[in-house]
Specification:
- It catalyses: N(6)-[(R)-lipoyl]-L-lysyl-[glycine-cleavage complex H protein] + glycine + H(+) = N(6)-[(R)-S(8)-aminomethyldihydrolipoyl]-L-lysyl-[glycine-cleavage complex H protein] + CO2.
- The modification N6-(pyridoxal phosphate)lysine is found at residue 691.
- The structure is a single chain.
- By secondary structure, this protein is of the alpha/beta class.
- Helix content is 38%, strand content 11%.
- The N and C termini lie far apart (59 Å).
Length: 939
């Protein structure tokens, strides 16, 4: 019998699932649902004939059938030559990076490097990215990527606002800013009380009055290149900071903003080998002066050392992260764009400084050919890749003629057309464009735009890997230093590291999806638009909501969009005083950060000893805030891994007080096919497609965070970012559109029954691990019948108190057993949160449980005095191959150190690249670019 895709996706087979149920004392799937979930929120299970709430989903199809369907859809998309620009450019991704990085599960299934000892490869790759950005922009410190250019600009705005306290609430923005960036800035500014003042800074200079910041673009949306040195100096004289949106390829030739005096640089690295993908995903960037380094939002890779003094990398300044600082976080960003940042960084490594300069000169040379032929129609005489032509009354005709030749130009207005050149532009393209303008070729004046004198990308990492042999080996060497999902179960509670099937991943590099410009004519993308329309409909059906927007390009952005919808709904009804957001103490940190960004005041609701929201405290908070209540944000099942049975009453209490209910969809994988938040009380939810719906984490991004709402909130969903008042939250209308086929394929291959099986298996597997491990590590929170949802929290606090062994020790020791650690100390300090997902089979679940039980045995030996905790295999973990051949003076053997299960154990050995890393040393000595060679040798 041929196996279905669901059989391939779901780990336990029939016998394995039966064994799991028997272990937890459950007779059937129906009994599992009845035991775990509150009856009041359930759809009928199993669904009776004609009553399936997911009946609108298509029937399950095979992998080959779905790939054929997607190929047919991609074939309907018109892959025109894009010369639209506005921050999106065609690029030639080196095939070595496509095959060995973008399509390699060792890279795309990796998790955020919170366990740095087993993440050295992706951390080094991100350090390359940061070094590339700082070198090209002339800044001191860059973060490890942002979501896109527009959101990076918004983060620059809020950074300047924080740093410039007392300088008022006005931000001056140059009129030649990308329009989508201006829209996202407007969205972010309004709830924070920031006033945006637009001005032609190159022509008119700075406006009067007080302002905290200035924001410019290099080159501008029109293609104009301006030397901003004078404006920056004037802004500084008036006490304001300056942020510049900068094209990194242009900066290989022109003086970077950092050398012109700018305080902040932001932008995108899309044209460094990352396909346009109808809008994303792409890695934005944000770079600052050293003075702003500790206020920099997003993640930051830093250099430190391990227990042996070996150079090692880790995430620096983690205490800035939103899950720790909540409403006081520097940002609500949870997902970066790590996979795409690594592609961009490796593109720079592969080409090096000379290669990037050559590409930039070729791009500029094509723009010069256009400019020479346009003559008096040329608007600006200094440009990099984009020329603006004045053709009074003929703009639409020129664009139409070019489109007939398979080329998309940008219609600016009735009298102006912009033409952007890129790495893929050829002489034939230039000839066709000139024909559309009706002008003859002319000899370019060849005025040299290059005025950059400083060197860049001088570190050896940008000089060693220019051959394919060298690059293949470098990528392999880096990935060997990591534990990703292709090597081991990653049992991360709250993060859902499940299978990212190859059939789901394959279409994302197809030209019909990957080479579409987000602002191309709608008629160019009927296939991808069909994928988008289907997904919006399917996700609405799965969640029980009425409308869905796919624009948010991270879960954090989905949260923000949903809260903005609530805020605007209240304002439109005249409820201007509703500014309070209630958030349980157990909630994800992004909830509070998003609420603060949306202009809401956060009030924390207590939880009971069993982990449930304290309804008595909730009633008191509602009474205290009365007419000020805007909403409550709850996660269901809860962040404590439990189905709270009073969820319907909680929703009713808030609704009766005039508030809205935001159900955080982070744990939707424990509901799909069984219960729908839009039907049991939710008004709005965001979903994490990179968790429940199989988009891979990619080392900390990409992600997609659609927002789903009931009909009364639908008018307040984000709109087209090219429309000023659209309340857009990202730079492209459909966010990271090119990875949406992953989720489309997953739902299409699973079908309704497969999705339900996945949910049931995730719940059963979590309860199985809770039962197997509960006698060794107490399970902190359980629901009725001692059941958990899709994850469980193991409480080590008493163990730590008695023995000194910490969650860090257990996490690091798991690497010696070949496993990635569970989530540490979230949502409760001193605990481990375990989520097995439906993708792990019974053998892997047992391997993990056996490892955790063996570690408990090692803890007992510490407790018995056999090993001092300070010199135990737990505290010294992880153990490297190098430490084995060094002097050995420990009370345990080398074999116990690295083969704790014994040499006969069949699990493949994972060798951590470094020993335990000294995070405090790295924070005290903040280094966030590639260290010099002697740092690797002086040990």
């Amino acid at each position: 019998m041929t196996q279905s895709f669901a059989d391939r996706h779901i780990g336990p087979d029939g016998a394995g699932f039966a064994h799991i149920l028997a272990e937890i004392g459950i007779a059937s799937a129906e009994d599992l649902v009845a035991a775990a979930l509150p009856a009041g929120i359930l759809d009928t299970y199993p669904p009776a004939a004609g009553t399936d709430p997911l009946a609108g989903l298509p029937p399950a199809a095979s992998e080959h059938e779905v790939l054929a369907e997607l190929a047919a859809l991609a074939a309907t998309d018109k892959v025109a030559t894009s010369m639209i620009g506005l921050g999106y450019y065609d690029t030639l991704t080196p095939p070595v990076l496509v095959r060995n990085l973008l399509e390699n599960p060792a890279w795309y299934t990796a998790y955020t490097p919170y366990q740095p000892e087993i993440s050295q490869g992706r951390l080094e790759a991100l350090l390359n990215f940061q070094t590339m950005v700082t070198d090209l922009t002339g800044m001191d410190v860059a973060n490890a990527s942002m979501l896109d250019e527009a959101t990076a600009a918004a983060e620059a705005m809020t950074l300047m606002h924080r740093a410039g306290r007392g300088r008022g609430t006005r931000l001056v923005v140059d009129s030649d800013l990308f329009p989508q960036t201006r829209t996202v800035l407007t969205t972010r500014a309004e709830p924070l009380g920031i006033e945006i003042v637009e001005a032609d800074l190159a022509g008119d200079g700075l406006p009067g009055g007080e302002f905290f910041g200035v924001l410019v673009q290099v080159p501008g949306a029109s293609g104009r290149v301006v030397d901003w040195t004078g404006v920056i100096a004037q802004a500084h004289e008036r006490g304001a900071l300056v942020a510049a949106g900068a094209d990194l390829l242009a900066l290989t030739l022109i003086t970077p903003p950092g050398e012109q005096g700018a305080d902040i640089c932001f932008g995108t690295t899309q044209r460094f080998g990352v396909p346009m993908g109808f809008g994303g995903p792409h890695a934005g960037y944000l770079a600052v002066r050293t003075a702003q380094a500790r206020q920099l939002p997003g993640r930051l890779v830093g250099v430190s050392k391990d227990a042996d003094g070996t150079l090692a990398y880790r995430l620096a300044l983690q205490t800035r992260e939103q899950h720790i600082r909540r409403e006081k976080a520097t940002s609500n960003i949870c997902t970066a764009q790590v996979l795409l940042a690594i592609v961009a960084g490796m593109y720079a490594c592969y080409h090096g400084a000379n290669g990037l300069r050559a590409i930039a000169r070729r791009v500029h040379g094509h723009a010069e050919q256009l400019a020479a032929a346009l003559g008096q129609a040329l608007v600006h005489d200094r440009y990099f890749d984009t020329v603006l032509a004045r053709v009074p009354g003929h703009a639409e005709s020129v664009v139409a003629k070019a489109a007939a030749r398979g080329i998309n130009l940008r219609l600016v207005d009735d009298d102006h057309v912009a033409v952007a050149c890129d790495e893929a532009t050829t002489g034939d393209h230039i000839a066709a464009v000139l024909d559309a303008f009706g002008v003859a070729p002319a000899e370019p004046a060849c005025a040299d735009i290059a005025d950059r004198t400083s060197e860049f990308l001088t570190h050896p990492v940008f000089q060693r890997y220019h051959t394919e042999t060298a690059m293949v080996r470098y990528l392999r060497a880096l990935s060997d230093k990591d534990i990703a999902l292709d090597r081991s179960m990653i049992p991360l509670g709250s993060c859902t590291m499940k299978l990212n099937a190859t059939a789901e991943m394959e279409p994302i590099t197809w030209p019909g999806f990957a080479r579409l410009h987000p602002y191309a004519p709608a008629t160019d993308a009927p296939g991808l638009r069909r994928v988008i329309d289907d997904l919006e409909r399917w996700l609405a059906e799965i969640t029980g909501y009425d409308s869905v927007s796919l624009q948010p390009n991270a879960g954090s952005q989905g949260e923000y969009a949903g809260l903005l919808a609530i805020r605007r709904y209240h304002l439109d009804r005249g409820d201007t005083g509703r500014d309070t957001c209630l958030i349980p103490s157990s909630a994800h940190g992004t909830n509070a950060a998003s609420a603060a960004m949306a202009g809401l005041r956060v009030e924390v609701v207590k939880c009971r000893a069993n982990g449930d929201v304290d309804l008595d405290d909730l009633r008191g908070k509602i009474a205290d805030h009365a007419d000020r209540l805007a909403c409550i944000m709850i996660t269901y099942p809860s962040t404590h891994g439990v189905y709270e049975h009073e969820i319907a009453e909680l929703c009713a209490l808030v609704h009766d007080a005039g508030g809205q209910v935001y159900v955080d969809g982070a744990n939707l994988n424990a509901l799909v096919g069984l219960a729908r938040p839009g039907r049991f009380g939710g008004d709005v939810s965001h979903l994490n497609l990179h968790k429940t719906f199989c988009i891979p984490h990619g080392g900390g991004g990409p992600g997609v965070g659609p927002v789903a709402v009931r009909s009364h909130l639908a008018p307040y969903l984000p709109g087209d970012p090219l429309v000023t008042d659209s309340h857009a939250v990202s730079a492209a209308n459909y966010g990271s559109a090119s990875i949406l086929p992953i989720t489309w394929a997953y739902i299409r291959m699973m079908g309704a029954d497969g999705l339900r099986r996945a949910t049931l298996t995730a719940i059963a597997s979590a309860n199985y691990l809770a039962r197997r491990l509960g006698e060794f590590y107490p399970v902190l929170y359980t629901g009725a019948g001692d059941m958990v949802a899709h994850e469980c929290i193991l409480d080590l606090r008493e163990i730590t108190k008695r023995t000194g062994v910490t969650v860090d020790d257990v996490a690091k020791r798991l690497a010696d057993y070949g496993f990635h650690a569970p989530t540490m100390s979230f949502p409760v300090a001193g605990t481990l949160m375990v989520e097995p997902t439906e993708s792990e089979d019974l053998a892997e679940l047992d391997e993990f449980a056996d490892a955790m039980i063996a570690i408990r045995g090692e803890i007992d030996r510490v407790a018995a005095g056999e090993w001092p905790v300070e010199d135990s295999p737990l505290r010294n973990a992880p153990h490297t191959a190098a430490c084995l051949v060094a002097d050995w003076d420990h009370p345990y053997s080398r074999e116990v150190a690295v083969y704790p299960h014994g040499l006969a154990h069949t699990r493949a050995k994972v060798w951590p690249a470094v020993r335990r890393i000294d995070g405090a040393f790295g924070d005290r000595n903040l280094v966030c670019t590639c260290p010099p060679l002697d740092a690797y040798t002086d040990r």
